[in-house]
Every structure is written in structure tokens, then in C-alpha cells.
């Protein structure tokens, strides 16, 4: 926690809201380009010294994520239902955001992901659209992200990936037993397994030590600083410039505008719940796919009665979900999957949508294990296994060390009826309307998950599993959604989108919105690399626009 | 089995006279080893004995340590005193319903703890679909397998049961299949 200190009355060049995967990148890019930056983060400023291998803190309680006791989330399937408090969505809530506790999967989107409407055609009941940018527009920024943050992987090993200008900066992580079994099985089936690209250091990099394979990645903060969160990679570089102040425990309630309709800063609650107005020449909103939309809706005024940047009426709309399915297998010998990072091998053979299947969608499948002792005993066992008693205890003794998971990551179609809105009744601890989630699957989402589940089953059988089971694809199984995409979609037409192809709000020239909210489609999940590549690209644009004097 | 139950009861209700010398020494040893003092902050002893009877069936002490040896009751008491204080009412109501069910099924019985093991199992089968049982199961599992600093998983008996080693670092190979020769 070093860096600059600015007065609220001091109109800084950029006010970044949210210090997560995107906001951390923004902080570094804008401050190293010479601009004065304040970053407001609603959560605390923790470091590796605060993290522990404590399941109570991080799997039983929301140690690093939004706490519904303080910030309730309400959920309904459709508009005719009354929304009820349920933790339907989850996001990282500290400096570093979700990049602190994520599993660290770092997939680039494919070339086809940016033009699926053209390739596949219309899908009834959806707003499936091409992105206003292509893979080639983003490629330099994927590369920049991989080198700036520290990504381990094997360039060119995934035959379905788009062209890349450089290999990964670090070699892949060591393969685990799940990866060996998966590789053997998928090759037998004629598929193309490759080493998982991970935001985890396989070797020392830029002053940080390599991973020691402790196994506590997903849901946990890395005590070794080997997970390449923005907290340990780019945020220190931002602070080192002396031009960037990271301000934690700062919960923004409104973005303010002037009579010209330009943003002038934001009002936030500090740790003591005092309201403070921070002035800025431009605002960069990176608060995640749920909170970004909510804040825009909260920022309504006489001039913007439906919320900020919302002339299209699309702020909050087209919410896309963390779809997928879990298949598990028991093997003869021990895998000890709890050791080491979660994921080491992936296939993208079933990624691309194929009209011949009769539905839109596809998925990636990875071999992994993302359970810890208690979470496995509660959620990882076969559905037909006893849940208590002598036999349950006996099974735990074998299953924990002999089990692996195949996780499918599948399409979530953009539908207008799926959205983030302000709950009319439920308030958070600050008296602000709660996030209300309205979401239901598209029939093709379900068809995709069911189809991919048959592939997961084939792979487990080819791997020689003694027993296999699935954990289901019901909506409840896919809650909370951690991949929050689509609520401020990107597009060329201001009537059909919220931000333009450079992540600038169509309605407000000095407001950039860069996080999962600008996604037009969901690809096959694993949004972090694309969130960060978009942030690098939007930062480049913001820097040029500021230099031209367009943002002041 | 019987002596461990007596040991536990003695810790619970504090009747030292029931404890033989060996058990008392064991008790003292555990008290020193554990960061948790062998007293309850929230649960009253009579209720604790009844909850203990249920959690000891969720993970029994058959063929090695179970919920009892892990000190699951100390974990539950810690939870209800701290991060799950808002669940005290769920426990009060939930246990009242379990007692109601017990009286219905075994009218002559005095308590859950006093039921023969087979009848305890029958009683749990009758309540295993309830939200309260799922809460008890969740707490039992965390008491067995969470970090020992929360009062359960004593001497890491839960981790030993499932084969989890508590280390800060590992080196590959991690398992059989990623070891030399394991990929055949």
C-alpha cells in the first residue's frame, strides 16, 4: 500500500471504479502513461500475509467474495416471479478483485467467438450478435496481458486457437494425474489435449517466486504471490509511478455528471460510511458485469432518468451466465488431486458451434479437481452414495484421493430477458437497492450442456474410470455464477449497445466501461483473459483520447 | 468406544467423578494440545449430549476416529458462538423437532443419547431429508475436516481419514498416474 494520495477536490485525470482484473490493468496502464489515477475499490486491501489455507474462511464463508449478509442479491427466473434473496452471483471483493481468488484459467477467445452471428446465423429468442472488433484487434492485447501478468502455457499447442504473435512467457505447469489420464483418454478418442494456460507462475517471473503446488488456488488467495492476480502483478507497478492511489473500502453509490452530460467524478462511502465526492476528468468503470450495470442504473439524474449511459435501455440486459457441468470419475490408484493447481489439461475439440447438431453452442472441457477436504465430503461424492454413516465414512477414505473432475465450460446465449436490475424492495447495508438477477437458460444452453456431458462421460470411460457420476446442470447447480458477462454490451449501433468498439460509452464521451459487462457473447466461459485484453485495449484508447484532450 | 463416550460426556457435563485416571490424563493431554478449552460457550451440556449422539452417527467412530474424536461438538459450539451465531435458533428448533420425532418413534426413550445405536440410525433416517439435518451434516463435515484451529479435526483425524496431508508445498509427482510408469 504505497503510491500517491489525492484530495477528493483534486480532479484527477482518471477515476477507476473497481480494482479487479480490469481495474488493476487500467491503473497500471494509465498511471505509467503519465496520468494521475485514483482507483476506488469497495473491498479491503489485503495481501498474501492475510491469506490462509482455511476452508471455513473461503469455502464456508465469503472470505474474498461479496457477502450477501451485507449486500443481498435477489434472484428470479423471469419477470413474473417475485425475486428472493439468494446468492445467485459471486464476485471478488478486494483489491485485485476476482483475479485474487480465481482458478487462474487463462483461455483466449477463438477467432470465431467474435463473429458467431455471421457464422451460425440467428438464434431464436436471443440477441446473438457479432462483436464490433475481431480477434486480430485484440491479439496484441492478449499477448501484452500474458507478458505483463505472467501466464504459463504452451503456445500453439491448442490447434483451435487463433494465431498468436508470441509464445507464452512461461512454460506450462507440471501435469497432474488428472491431466495424464485425460491426455491419454482424449488422444485415444482422436481429440487434441493441450496444457492448460494458467495465470500461475511455473518459474520465477518479474521478482515473484514460482508456484509451490500447495493446491489452494480456487476460492483462495495465493500466499506465495505465484497466482498472477492484478494485486501482485500490475497494481504494484501502478503504485510505483507515484501517480496512482488505490483507495480500498470505498463503495461507490453514484457517478455524477455536469450540465453538458459529461461525468465529473463519483460519490462513494468510505470505511466510516461518510460520503465523499472524488472529482475526475474521466471515469473508467470496471466494477464487474453485475455491479457496473447496477452503478449505472443507480446513477440516474434528471438528465439521465433511466440511468447513465442507458439511452439504448440495454444497461443490465443480456446477462450471460457461468454455464457448464461437472462429471467425475473414480480411479484405481491415488491421484492426490488436492496437490497442485486445479487444472493442467484442456480440450477445445467441442468448442465450435455446429449447425448440424441442431442447436447453437459448444464447450471446452478441462481435467481438474477443485474440491477441498470439507467441500469434497459435502458436494463431491456420487449422488447415489450414502450421505452419512459407516459407509459414507469408508467411502471418504478412498474417494478424496482417487477422484478427478472433468469440468465443461459452455455457451450462455445473450437473452434480453436475462438481466441485472435494481431490487425495488431489498436494500444493502448502505441503504442502496440490492442487485436483482433475472436469469433462465435458453433451450440451446441446456442442449449444449447435455451434449457436452455425453462427451465428458466418454472421456472418463476412455480414461478407465471405475465409476463415474455427474453433478447435474440445473440452474441451482450453476449458482452462484462467477462469470458475469454482457450487461453493457459492445457494438457500433448506439441503439443496440452501451459501449462502442473501444469500450467508450456511446452516450458519454469521458466514460469508459471495461470489464465482463462489455462482452457481446460468452464464448465458452473463462472470461478473464478477454476482460484483461479488453482493458489493455481500452486503456490504450483512453490514453490517446486524453492526449487529444477529448476526455477533460 | 464406551470409554471415549464417557470421556466426552465428562468433558461435557464436568462430572470428574465419572472419569477414570487414564481418561483424565488423556483429557489433560488433549486440553493442552488443543487451542480450544474443553468447555462450551454456547451449547448447554444437555443439548450438547443430544447433538453429539446425532453427529456421532453421521461420522461414526467405527474402524477409526470419527466425529467424536475429531471434537466436532467443540467445532459446532465455536461456530454457534462466532461465525454462525445466527444459526442458534435453527439448532433450537431443529433439535426440538428431532426430539419430537424420537418420542413419536420410540415413546419409551428418554433421550437420543440413550437410544441404542440401531434406533439412533432409524431416527436419523426419518429426519435425513430435513434442512436441519443438512445443517448438522455440514457442521459435522467441517468439524471433521476444517482447519483444527476451529476446535474440530483434532490431531488432524479428519484429514488422516481422507488422506489429506497438511503441507504448504508439494513437488510432482503428486499421484500414481503422473509418476514414472503411471501413464501406461
SSE inventory with pairings:
The complex is a heterodimer of chains A (552) and B (184).
Chain A: E1 14-17, H1 21-32, E2 37-40, H2 55-60, E3 73-76, E4 84-85, H3 98-101, H4 116-120, H5 135-150, H6 177-188, E5 194-195, H7 234-240, E6 244-247, E7 251-257, E8 263-269, E9 275-279, E10 283-285, H8 291-298, E11 324-330, E12 343-347, E13 363-368, H9 373-380, H10 390-402, E14 403-410, E15 419-427, E16 433-438, H11 443-462, E17 467-470, E18 511-513, H12 528-547
Parallel strand pairs in A: 1-2, 1-10, 2-6, 3-16, 10-18
Antiparallel strand pairs in A: 3-4, 5-12, 7-8, 8-9, 11-14, 11-17, 12-13, 13-14, 15-16
Helix pairs in contact in A: 1-7, 1-12, 5-12, 6-11
Chain B: H1 2-13, H2 21-33, H3 45-58, H4 67-70, H5 72-81, H6 88-105, H7 117-127, H8 131-145, H9 157-162
Summarize the model shown.
The complex is a heterodimer of chains A (552) and B (184). Chain A is an alpha/beta fold and 552 residues long.
List keywords for this structure.
heterodimer; A: 552 residues; alpha/beta; FAD/NAD(P)-binding domain; six-stranded antiparallel sheet; five-stranded parallel sheet; 12 helices; 16% strand; globular; B: 184 residues; mainly alpha; 0% strand; elongated; disordered N terminus
Descriptive account of the structure:
The complex is a heterodimer of chains A (552) and B (184). Chain A is α/β, with parallel strands linked by helices and 552 residues long. In chain A, 24% of the residues lie in helices and 16% in strands. In chain A, the strands form 4 sheets. A 6-stranded antiparallel β-sheet of chain A has the order 5-12-13-14-11-17. Chain A has a 5-stranded parallel β-sheet with strand order 6-2-1-10-18, covered by helices on one side. Chain A has a 4-stranded mixed β-sheet with strand order 4-3-16-15, covered by helices on one side. The mean pLDDT of chain A is 97. Chain B is elongated. Chain B is 56% helix and 0% strand. By secondary structure, chain B is mostly helical. Chain B is built from 9 helices and no strands. Chain B has a domain of 124 residues.
Amino acid at each position: 500500500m504505497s503510491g500517491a494520495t489525492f484530495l477528493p477536490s483534486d480532479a484527477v485525470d482518471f477515476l477507476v471504479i473497481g480494482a479487479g482484473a480490469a481495474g488493476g490493468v487500467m491503473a497500471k496502464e494509465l498511471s505509467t502513461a503519465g496520468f494521475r489515477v485514483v482507483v476506488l475499490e469497495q473491498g479491503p486491501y489485503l495481501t498474501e500475509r492475510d491469506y490462509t489455507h482455511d476452508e471455513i474462511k473461503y469455502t464456508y464463508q465469503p472470505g474474498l467474495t461479496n457477502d450477501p449478509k451485507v449486500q443481498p442479491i435477489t434472484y428470479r427466473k423471469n419477470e413474473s416471479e417475485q425475486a428472493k434473496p439468494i446468492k445467485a452471483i459471486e464476485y471478488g471483493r478486494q483489491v485485485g478483485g476476482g483475479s485474487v481468488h480465481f482458478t487462474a484459467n487463462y483461455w483466449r477467445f477463438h477467432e470465431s467467438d467474435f463473429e458467431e452471428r455471421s457464422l451460425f446465423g440467428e438464434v431464436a429468442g436471443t440477441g446473438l450478435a457479432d462483436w464490433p472488433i475481431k480477434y486480430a484487434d485484440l491479439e496484441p492485447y492478449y499477448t501484452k496481458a500474458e507478458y505483463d501478468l505472467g501466464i504459463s502455457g504452451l503456445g500453439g499447442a491448442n490447434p483451435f486457437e487463433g494465431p498468436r504473435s508470441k509464445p507464452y512467457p512461461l512454460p506450462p505447469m507440471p501435469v497432474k494425474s488428472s491431466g495424464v489420464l485425460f491426455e491419454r483418454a482424449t488422444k485415444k478418442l482422436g481429440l487434441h489435449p493441450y496444457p492448460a494456460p494458467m495465470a500461475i507462475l511455473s518459474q520465477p517471473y518479474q521478482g515473484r517466486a514460482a508456484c509451490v503446488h500447495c493446491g489452494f488456488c480456487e476460492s483462495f488467495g495465493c500466499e506465495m504471490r505465484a497466482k498472477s492476480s492484478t494485486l501482485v502483478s500490475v497494481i504494484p507497478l501502478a503504485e510505483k509511478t507515484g501517480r496512482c492511489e488505490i483507495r480500498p473500502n470505498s463503495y461507490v453509490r453514484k457517478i455524477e455528471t455536469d450540465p453538458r452530460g459529461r461525468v465529473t467524478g463519483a460519490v462513494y462511502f468510505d470505511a466510516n460510511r461518510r460520503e465523499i465526492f472524488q472529482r475526475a476528468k474521466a471515469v473508467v468503470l470496471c466494477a464487474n458485469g453485475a455491479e457496473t450495470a447496477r452503478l449505472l442504473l443507480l446513477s440516474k439524474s434528471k438528465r439521465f432518468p433511466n440511468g447513465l449511459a442507458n439511452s439504448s435501455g440495454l444497461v443490465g440486459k443480456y446477462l450471460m451466465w457461468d454455464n457448464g457441468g461437472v462429471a467425475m470419475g473414480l480411479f484405481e490408484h491415488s491421484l492426490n488431486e488436492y496437490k497442485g493447481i486445479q487444472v493442467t489439461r484442456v480440450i477445445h475439440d467441442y468448442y465450435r458451434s455446429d449447425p448440424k447438431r441442431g442447436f447453437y453452442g459448444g464447450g471446452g472441457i478441462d481435467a481438474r479437481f477443485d474440491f477441498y477436504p470439507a467441500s469434497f465430503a459435502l458436494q463431491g461424492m456420487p449422488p447415489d452414495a450414502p450421505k452419512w454413516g459407516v459407509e459414507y465414512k469408508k467411502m471418504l477414505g478412498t474417494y478424496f484421493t482417487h477422484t478427478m473432475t472433468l469440468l465443461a465450460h459452455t455457451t450462455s446465449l445473450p437473452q434480453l430477458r436475462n438481466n441485472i436490475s435494481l431490487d425495488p424492495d431489498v436494500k444493502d447495508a448502505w441503504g442502496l437497492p440490492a442487485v436483482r438477477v433475472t436469469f433462465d437458460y435458453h433451450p440451446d444452453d441446456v442442449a449444449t450442456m447435455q451434449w457436452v456431458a455425453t462427451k465428458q462421460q466418454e472421456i472418463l470411460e476412455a480414461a478407465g474410470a471405475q465409476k463415474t457420476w455427474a453433478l447435474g446442470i440445473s440452474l441451482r447447480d450453476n449458482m452462484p455464477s462467477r462469470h458475469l458477462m454482457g450487461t453493457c454490451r459492445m457494438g457500433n449501433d448506439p441503439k443496440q449497445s452501451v459501449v462502442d468498439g473501444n469500450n467508450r460509452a456511446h452516450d458519454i464521451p469521458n466514460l469508459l466501461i471495461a470489464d465482463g459487462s462489455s462482452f457481446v457473447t460468452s464464448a465458452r466461459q473463462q472470461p478473464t483473459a478477454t476482460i484483461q485484453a479488453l482493458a489493455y485495449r481500452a486503456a490504450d484508447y483512453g490514453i490517446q483520447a486524453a492526449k487529444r484532450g477529448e476526455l477533460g | 468406544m464406551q470409554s471415549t463416550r464417557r470421556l466426552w460426556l465428562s468433558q461435557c457435563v464436568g462430572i470428574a467423578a465419572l472419569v477414570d485416571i487414564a481418561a483424565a490424563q488423556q483429557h489433560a493431554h488433549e486440553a493442552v494440545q488443543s487451542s480450544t478449552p474443553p468447555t462450551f460457550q454456547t451449547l448447554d451440556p444437555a443439548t450438547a449430549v443430544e447433538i453429539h449422539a446425532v453427529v456421532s452417527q453421521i461420522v461414526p467412530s467405527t474402524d477409526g476416529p470419527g466425529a467424536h474424536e475429531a471434537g466436532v461438538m467443540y467445532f459446532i459450539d465455536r461456530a454457534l458462538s462466532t461465525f454462525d451465531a445466527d444459526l442458534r435458533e435453527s439448532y433450537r428448533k431443529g433439535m426440538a423437532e428431532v426430539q419430537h420425532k424420537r418420542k413419536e418413534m420410540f415413546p419409551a426413550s428418554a433421550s437420543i443419547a440413550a437410544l441404542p445405536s440401531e434406533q439412533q440410525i432409524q431416527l436419523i433416517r426419518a429426519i435425513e431429508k430435513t434442512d436441519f439435518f443438512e445443517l448438522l451434516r455440514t457442521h459435522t463435515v467441517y468439524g471433521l475436516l476444517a482447519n483444527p484451529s476451529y476446535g474440530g479435526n483434532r490431531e488432524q483425524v479428519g484429514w488422516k481419514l481422507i488422506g489429506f496431508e497438511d503441507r504448504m508445498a508439494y513437488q510432482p509427482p503428486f499421484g500414481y498416474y503422473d509418476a514414472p510408469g503411471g501413464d501406461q
